[in-house]
Amino acid sequence: MSKRYKIELPACGLLVGNAIYNTYAGYLMGSGYTYTSWAADSSTPLELIDLTVKENQGNIVQLWWFDGGSRPQTKARYLALEDVGITIPAPDFKNAKNMKLTDFDCFEKYGTERAGAGVLKSLRYAQEQGLYTTMIYCEGVNPVYSKEIETLSPSYIGYDFGEKFTFRFDSKNAFGVQGVTLKSLAEDFVARVSAHIQERKEAGYGNICCTSCNFYMDYEVVAGVDFTMFEDCTCELNFATALSRGLCKQYDLGIWGSHIANEYYAWIPWDNPYRFETLRAELYLKYLSGAKVIISESGAWHCQSAGAPEMKKTPRIVKPIGPTPDEQWLPYAEEAQKYFKNMDRDSQYCRNYRRIMSDFYDYVKTNGTPEGQPEVSIAIAKGNYDLSSLSLDGYNMCHVIGGAQALADQDQRWFSGQPEKGWQIASDVFWPRPAGIYGSDTYNRIFSGTPYGQIDIVSFAYDNITADFLSENYKALIFAGWNTASEKQYGILLDYVKRGGILLISLPQFSKDITRNYTNYTVDDLVNGGNLSELCGVKVKGRGPRFYWGTVYDYANNDFAQTVKRHGYGVFYSQLGELEITDPEMETLIIDQEAFQPLLLRRKLGKGQVFFLNSWYYPGIYGHDCEGEAKTNSPGMFADMIRYIAKLARPQVFMTGKGLDEPDTECSFINLAAYPDQKLICLYNIDFEKPHTIDLHSFDGSVQTITLAPQEMKRL
Fold first, then answer.
1. CB under 8 Å to 357, separation ≥6 — which residues?
2. Would you say 371 and 675 are in contact if contact means Cβ atoms under 8 Å apart?
3. What is the pairing mode between strands 608-613 and 502-506?
4. Which of 140, 525, 710, 711: CA 20 to 30 A from 585?
């Protein structure tokens, strides 16, 4: 691979700004039975660069430089034909003139020779105006121009291939049914991404970035991307942050970024008074959690979303679904243009977005940005060959692993199941999403609190992780979802615990399976043939008895029980492993109520400790809770295990309920990020209507009660 260019941040410490598109008003951008979108603004990229500076819209622009397709005006900009004295007249939609490339001789003459001239021109122009740049989805640039692009570094930070690579249902990448494994899917994915990165690097595109809502973004990093820009708002924001930040630290990427798609994915009705304010909340949450690049994808310069009120009034072109020939939509173009004034850059809609961006940029310039990354003491392990699609909407039983739809139709284990449910349980503990934050019963999809502080997700993809990294960064490591184990991985975990780490792991997460066989595996499928003595203090002999209830063992003397304040859990319909206990000092925390077999064991090892969940099934099944002590919305047994470890692994700075030693529901509304080197604490209230109060436990051990107003950002 070619070299990675270091991204030098501006004095304020953050790159923030809007996307810029090469569009022309009047064209139909997309259509379908529920989706119709018209281009509503004709501003050129150069004009929008000027307006970015004039209207205080940040210090970076993201250029969406498509090649213009069949549209003469936008194609001309891509080729920078104005620099060779050619002016293309505006399209005449009423008479269907000036709308085809074949109407002009210049495109055949210059189409290849000047491909991308406008791209390089806009990048240079932005640099001259003092702006940083990045670009996305820019294909087919003549090497004469692309070789000049990377010379614009450091103000040019890199090329983003966006969502070019993904696992979609009925994907050709699933190879049908025969011979598909998690390993083969991962290797094919990495190979395709790696080849594209190499090609782009050789073409002169500089740093390579990925933007998507893929939970398997770690395999894009393995393939060689230089930094990541998760498409935020497609899922719960802190979940995306945890993965982005964990990968940044693990692979020493330097920075991680956020690609905010608020216009499409605010997930609240357009008539909700907080509709635009959700962007402000998203900006602050990424700022305090360590993002160093934040791009707002759309909304600033023209409306794109089919859900916007004015767009809904435009003519709906419903046949055919997909690319619509000009002759089918042209009769509606004149009617559509009546609504453009409420969707173009001068509309109130766009002005609202720019007002919020300007306010936020002023805040950043005034206060600066916390340096580096916030304190994190707990990581969730994303296991090897975890190719699930969790990020889009959490656990969904219809999600298919790795796009292997045909295989899932024959083998239901390729649908989301026990392993993925474990991720949902962990997410609900670390990133709870309280209801009612919008002053209504609108579902809260993306905003969560961080009652246990900032959490990272680290990747065991190909076991590219070390005990050194884990020990230096995390007090505790929790396995929640899928994992394909190996002897190498076993050694890493052993070393981590001996050095002082706290590990929570379950029996099936020691399986070496690559076929999603997570219920009918055998002892022979386990690492070391089931001999986990050195790490967990047990040998797995086979399947154990099935059981209904889990009961805390020796309640009065059990610190776990005293912390979670529960005697029992269930009902599970689950199965234990048959164990031989090899460490006589092993401590039993939870047992099967009827057979008195151990369910949760704790072993002290070196300076650390291992919590071993003796379940033949993945921990995701231990979220159901209807035992006699269960309350409404009970977190369940696995969640209580996570909560207990979170208390053991508290960071220097943490929050609790007022007068309590544990987080309460008030903490579910607050985001906390602490920067020890700077003795800086950032707090943010995600509730748009109500204040919330917590006790903040600070660096020096002091405790202060703090109330944050609705949507308040506080730096201490």
1. 16, 17, 18, 57, 58, 279, 283, 296, 300
2. yes
3. parallel
4. 525
Tell me the residue type at 115: A
Among all chains, which residue has been given the structure tokens 């951008």? 29
Separation CA 387–CA 400 (nearest Å): 9
Strands 208-210 and 15-21: unpaired
Length of the chain: 716
First-to-last alpha carbon distance for the chain, in angstroms, is 43
pLDDT in tens, 517-549: 999 999 999 999 999 999 999 999 999 999 999
Beta bridge partners of 378: 476
Strand segments (E) across 137-239: 156-160, 208-210, 227-232
CA distance 78 to 67: 6
3-state SS, one letter per residue, for 268-294: CCCCCCCCCHHHHHHHHHHHHCCCCEE
SS3 22: coil
The whole-angstrom separation of Cα 24 and Cα 39 is 6
For residue 600, what are the β-bridge partners? Answer: 590, 613
Q: What CA–CA distance (Å, rounded) separates 272 from 279?
A: 13
Q: How far apart are CA 502 and CA 646, in angstroms?
A: 10
Say if residues 482 and 385 touch (Cβ distance below 8 Å).
yes
**What is the number of other CB atoms lying within 10 angstroms of the CB of residue 269?**
11
Q: Mind listing the pLDDT tens digit for each residue in 582-640? A: 999 999 999 999 888 999 999 999 999 999 999 999 999 999 889 888 888 888 999 99
Does this model's pTM top 0.85? yes
